[in-house]
Specification:
Layout: E1 11-13, E2 18-19, E3 25-26, E4 30-36, E5 46-50, E6 76-77, E7 82-83, E8 88-92, H1 123-137, E9 144-148, H2 150-161, E10 168-172, H3 180-195, H4 211-225, H5 228-234, H6 242-246, H7 254-266, H8 272-284, H9 287-290, H10 295-298, E11 306-312, H11 320-332, E12 337-342, H12 356-366
Parallel strand pairs: 5-8, 5-9, 6-7, 9-10, 10-11, 11-12
Antiparallel strand pairs: 1-4, 2-3, 4-8
Helix pairs in contact: 1-2, 3-4, 3-8, 4-7
């Protein structure tokens, strides 16, 4: 993982220990966040964006870790669907991560990294930390919460557990619970990390990180973010050219090189232990189970909240059927909800890519 110690992450430390679903408390929690646009005098224009598994707080502008544009640069900014000329946009790095917020690589009570002594966290814990962040910022109620993928899980969790904190919920390409297939893909990635000799039971800080295992985990996950149509259009069965091979790639097919690049570049910015903890939090996520086994009960307190749910026809990770389950649960409690399945060739990653129809949905709902 790249050294992020020299980056001055904008952050705050929560005043009180954070109570976790595991029954433990986490003291001195640091939450790193970024804001875009001005907060209105009445504090009524705040929009909280939740990021996905490997995302971060840098939704727009230049990411200081990678030097690349923010992960939702096309969606957030002046005159864009989430217009920072009108809204005060906040995005926080989730707890358990490695980009400024408290996670396994953070110093624990003994002064050394928590590593695998970090407590188990859940999606609800992540949201709970961000609600405490809003308290510290003096923001009682949000105009909207927005998220895709794991960010969508957080948006739904926010609506279920903190319905009084937001007027609108926009959840994109997400689900109310992981399937066995979702869990299986994550477990394959976790096993790849733990099989790397450099993992050392999680105590690799100060030494060689388990980069090979993390790269394989990222490769496996990245396949689930794409569609067969997208991969075929982009790569087909095309072989590598000599120029690509001269850069050290020994893969025969272009798609192999693409996946290897995705894996290797990921290890430059992410921590392997964080990957273990966050994927486990996603696997534990089950809104129905949290509320007595009936998904509709999760939203009984959110009848005055407006919902917009979006799925993509080529997303086989979180399908349209998954999203319809949430729609039916909202209908059961008479919560105002709109739902749309958009057509896009990119699979699960469609919410991050150029899908003009999504821009129109986001702008219309947030506005």
């Amino acid at each position: 993982m790249a050294n992020t110690s020299e980056i001055d992450f904008r952050s705050l430390v929560l005043d009180a220990p954070l109570a976790l679903d595991s029954g433990r408390e986490l003291a001195g929690v640091q939450v790193a966040y970024e804001t875009y646009g001005e907060l209105a005098p009445d504090r009524g224009n705040a929009v909280l964006i939740f990021h996905a598994l490997t995302g971060d707080q840098f939704v727009a502008g230049t990411n200081p870790v990678t030097g690349k544009p923010g992960w939702w640069e096309r969606m957030v900014g002046p005159g864009k669907p989430i217009d920072t000329d009108r809204f005060h946009v906040i995005c926080a790095n989730v707890i358990g991560s490695c980009l400024g917020s408290t996670g396994p690589s953070s110093a624990g009570p003994q002064g050394k990294p928590y590593a695998m002594q970090f407590p188990v966290i859940t999606i609800r814990d992540m949201v709970r930390a961000q609600m405490a962040m809003l308290d510290a910022l003096g923001i009682e109620k949000l105009h909207a919460v927005v998220g895709g993928s794991m960010g969508g899980m957080q948006a739904l969790s926010c609506a279920a557990n903190f319905p009084e904190r937001t007027d609108r919920v926009l959840a994109i390409a997400t689900t109310a619970r992981h399937t066995a297939q979702n869990i299986a893909f994550h477990e394959m990635g976790r096993q790849a990390i733990m099989a790397d000799p450099n993992w050392q039971g999680g105590d690799y800080y100060g030494g060689e990180a388990p980069a090979k295992g993390l790269a394989v985990a990222r490769m496996a996950a990245h396949i689930t973010y794409l569609s067969e149509e997208g991969l075929t259009t982009k790569f087909g069965r095309r072989l590598q050219d000599r120029e690509a091979k001269s850069f050290g790639f020994d893969a025969d097919f272009q798609v192999e090189s693409y996946l290897r690049y995705q894996g290797l570049s990921f290890t430059d910015r992410f921590d392997a232990n964080s990957y273990l903890y966050i994927t486990r939090a996603m696997d534990y996520f089950d809104l129905a189970e949290e509320h007595g086994g009936l998904l509709a009960d999760a939203f009984r307190g959110a009848k005055d909240t407006r919902f917009c749910l979006v799925s993509f026809d080529t997303d086989w990770l979180y399908t349209t059927a998954d999203m319809r389950e949430v729609v039916h649960a909202l209908n059961a409690v008479a919560a105002p909800v709109s739902f749309v399945e958009l057509s896009a060739p990119y699979g699960h990653d469609s919410f991050l890519l150029d899908v003009p129809a999504l821009d129109r949905v986001v702008e219309g709902f947030i506005g």
